[in-house]
Design a protein that fits this description.
Shape: globular
Structural class: mainly beta
Distance between the termini: 34 Å
Largest sheet: 8 strands, antiparallel, barrel
Strand content: over 45%
Number of strands: 10
Order of helices and strands: HEEEEEEEEEE
Helix content: under 10%
Strand order of the largest sheet: 3-4-5-6-7-8-9-10
Amino acid sequence: MIFRLGFFAAVVSLAGCASTGGASPGNSVVAAPTGDGDVIVGAIEDSSLPRGECGMILWTLEADRPAPIFRLIAGKGAEIVLNGELTKLTLAETSGAVGFGVAEENTLVAENIIAKVRTRFGLGFDGGSYLEQGLLTIESSTGWRAVIPAAGVAGCRRK
């Protein structure tokens, strides 16, 4: 329980800050499926929500440090870094509970990519909610698949 609270404290502090400078998109490797058509999922450079927007940000642990890997802005789509390139995803389907403009279960698409995000809303905080039991699954039309455990936040950023 202490680890969980510590991780979420780090998530909240990261959510409020804009990531400027530092590593370029995808510099840190988060997941790399094996086999033909390998893909590397990297950290997103700017994981903050834009001012006045709602959405979700997911992190996973990389070398025992949280790494932002997914950002969804309500009504505008999502972003993930694949093979060092920032990839824009379009929301195709949602289900489950909805809060702050995002659903607990989301299916997103890009050219030859399907991303599925499953989370559960957890404890709330002023302007948002923690996301628990997260799982990000990325599949390509060529057959590779990456499954990444994640946690994060859903909320709205003030103007």
